[in-house]
Amino acid sequence: MNDSADSAPQKLQTTPQPGGSRRDFLLASVLAAATPTISVSETQAAPAAAAVPGRPGGKPNIILFHSDQFRWDCICAAGHNPMDFTPNLDAMYRRGTVFKNFITNQPLCSPSRSCWMTGQYATTTGVWKNGPGLHRDARTIATQLTPAGYSANYFGKWHLAPGWTLAECGPVAPEYRGGFTGAWLAANCPEISTQPYDSQFWDNQDHPVHYGKDVYRVDFLTGEAEKFLRKKHEKPFLMVLSQLEPHQQNYKCEHGDVFGFVPPRGYEKLFRSCYVPEDLRFFPGDWQYEMNNYYGDIKAIDDSLGRILKTLKEQNLEDNTIVMFLSDHGCHFRTRNEEYKRSPHESSIHVPLMIQGPGFNNQQTITELVSMIDIAPSILDLLGQKIPACMQGRSFIPLLHDEIARAQWRNEVLVQISESEIARALRTPEWTYVALAPQANPLGDPGSPHYQDYQLYNNRADPHQLVNLAGRRDTRWPDNNILLNYVGQRSMRDITAHLRERLIARMVEAGEARPEIALWPFYP
After folding, report:
1. Mean of the per-residue pLDDT values of the chain
2. Which helix (H) or strand (E) holds 110?
3. Where are the beta strands (DSSP E) in 328-483?
4. What pLDDT, on a 0 to 100 scale, did the predictor assign at position 289?
5. Lowest mean per-residue pLDDT among 255-269, 364-378, 435-449
6. 131 in Cβ contact with 88 (< 8 Å)
C-alpha cells in the first residue's frame, strides 16, 4: 500500500492483457486511438500515405500547455477554490488524468523548465538559477523525439538561453533552443522583453512579430498556436505553448508597476471581491492588492486552453493528440520571502499536472508524488522510446494501470532552492523537511557541503504550513528530550532523523556531494 497523502478511489476504465507490460498496453491503447478503424478492403485500397492528417504512422501528437506561476489550487474543479471561473480547466480535470501531488524540483522559472525539458535536476543541467542557460548539447524532449519522426515546435516564454540583459531577454539564438527546430515564436524572458499589449515575440529567423495595442499577450500566442494547429502536418508534432501569465510583469508595463500582475483589460474588475487561499490569509504580502489581478490572469489562461482544445476538435486532431497542462512553480505572493516563489512551501512547489487525450481520458486521479524531472521520461516511455540513461526522472506511466507499480513507487521528491537561499527539501505525503545552507551564497553557490535543519511541516495536520516543527521539544521534560507531536511510536526527533537521512540519500543520487546536515539549534 503506497504512502500517499490522498486515498481517493481511482476510476480505471482499461485492463491490461496478460503477457505484456503495462506500458505496452497503454502504448497500444494510445496508438489504437490515434489510428482510424479500416476494413481489409479499405486497407488494400488505401495508399500508405493515407493516414489521417496529423497522425502519420499512428503516432499521437503531444501538446504541453505550460502556464507560468500557476497555483495548484486555482483549478476550481479540484475543490479548493469556490469561485467557479475556470470552466475549460475544470472540463480537462474531470475528463482526463489528474496528478494530484505534482511537485516541482526547483521552484524558479529557468531551473524548473530545465528539469522537465531534460528529465534532470537543475544542478545537473547547470541551470540552477535564472541566467546560466541550457547547455547547447543538452538532451531534451525535443532532441529525443525529433529522430522518432516528430517535429518540435515552440511558442511563448523560453527562459533557457543565457543572460539577463534586455537584449538577451528577447530573441533566442538557434543554438540555445534545446532542439526545437520546427515552428518557433518565442522570447527568452517575456516578463522583461515584452509587454502585455502592443509588443512582440521573435520567429525562427529572430525577426520580431508584433501584436497590437488592443491584443493581449496570451491571446496573441494562443492565436499563433492555433495557426500552427490548422496547418497540414506531415509528421506527428510536439508543440509547447508556454504562456507567461499568471507570472507578474518584471519590467515597465502600462500599470507602472515593476512587479505587477497584468490581466486583460476589464478582467481585474471581475475579481475585486475574491476568494483568498487559506495559506495566504495568515501572512502579510501583496495578495491584498494583487489577488484580483492574478485571478484575471488565470481566467485568461483558461480562455487560452479552451481555444486550443476547440481548435483540436475543429481540425479532427482531438482524438490523436495528448494534451498536458502544467506549471513551473506556484505563487505565495511574498508571504514566505521577498518574491513569489523560491521557497519549499506548498504554495511554491505544488503545481498542477493534468493530461487528456488517447489513453488518458479515464477520469482518473493519481495520488502518488511525481515531479518535474519525470515529465520527459514519461513522454518517451508513453511513445515507446528509449529513456536516455542521463535522465534522472522516472516514468509515471505505470501508475495509471499497475497496482504493483503504485505500491513500489518511491513516494518522495527532492526539491532544490536557490536565489532566495540555498536549501534542499524532501517532500513526502506527510512531511516537508528542509535543510538550509546559511553560509552559502544564494546567487553564487549551486549547493553546499554544510546544511542544518531548518523547517519541518506536517502536511496532513498543518496543510497551510503555519507551524515549523524543526528542532522542537516539550520543555516540560527537558531531561528526557521528549519531542512534540508523536506519530505512532515515533518521536519528532526520530522522524526528523529519518527525513534527514532520506534527503541526504536523494541529494547524493542527484549527483551532489554528500553533505553534512547539523541539528537545528534554535530550540535547545
Report:
1. 86
2. helix 109-118
3. 350-351, 353-356, 364-371, 413-417, 423-427, 431-436, 450-458
4. 84
5. 255-269
6. no
Q: Determine the 3-state secondary structure of 200 from DSSP.
A: strand
Decide which of 6 and 59 is more confident.
Answer: 59
Question: Distance between CA atoms of 484 and 473, rounded to whole angstroms?
Answer: 5
Nine cell digits for residue 280: 495566504
CA-to-CA distance for 169 and 173, rounded, in angstroms?
11
| Residue written as grid cell 547547447 | 136
Q: Using CA atoms, how far apart are residues 177 and 183, in angstroms rounded to an integer?
A: 11
Q: Inter-axis angle of helices 109-118 and 375-382, to 10 degrees?
A: 30
Q: Directed axis angle between helix 375-382 and helix 22-33, to 10°?
A: 70
Contact by Cβ (8 Å): 118, 136: no
pLDDT band at 494 (very low <50, low <70, confident <90, very high): confident
The answer to whether the beta carbons of residues 344 and 99 sit under 8 Å apart is: no
Reply yes or no on whether the pLDDT at 353 is more than 90. Answer: yes
Only one residue has cell 502579510, namely: 284
Q: What's the gap between Cα 458 and its chain centre?
A: 23
CA 99 to chain centre: 11
What nine digits make up the cell of 20? 505484456
The whole-number pLDDT of residue 178 equals 96
CA dist 427 and 512 (Å) reads 18
The percentage of the chain sitting over the pLDDT mark of 70, rounded to a whole number, equals 84
Residue closest to 99 by CA, chosen among 360, 341, 394, 471 = 360
Q: Which H or E run contains 153?
A: strand 151-157
Greatest CA separation for the chain:
87
Tens-place pLDDT, residues 166-194? 889 999 999 999 999 999 999 999 999 99
Q: How far is CA 285 from the centre of its chain?
A: 24
What is the distance between the alpha carbons of residues 496 and 483, in angstroms, rounded to a whole number?
11
**Cβ–Cβ contacts within 10 Å for residue 404, how many?**
9
Distance CA 139, CA 155 (A): 20
Q: d(Cα 235, Cα 55) in Å, to the nearest integer? A: 7
Euclidean distance between CA atoms 407 and 426, whole angstroms: 20
- Name which of 152, 153, 155, 250 is nearest 201 in CA terms: 155
CA dihedral 165, 168, 171, 174 (to 10 degrees): 180
Q: What's the pLDDT tens digit per position in 123-181? A: 999 999 999 999 999 999 999 999 999 999 999 999 999 988 888 999 999 999 999 99
In 395-523, DSSP assigns E strands to 413-417, 423-427, 431-436, 450-458, 516-518
Closest CA to 357 of 328, 379, 377: 379
H/E segment holding residue 41: helix 40-45
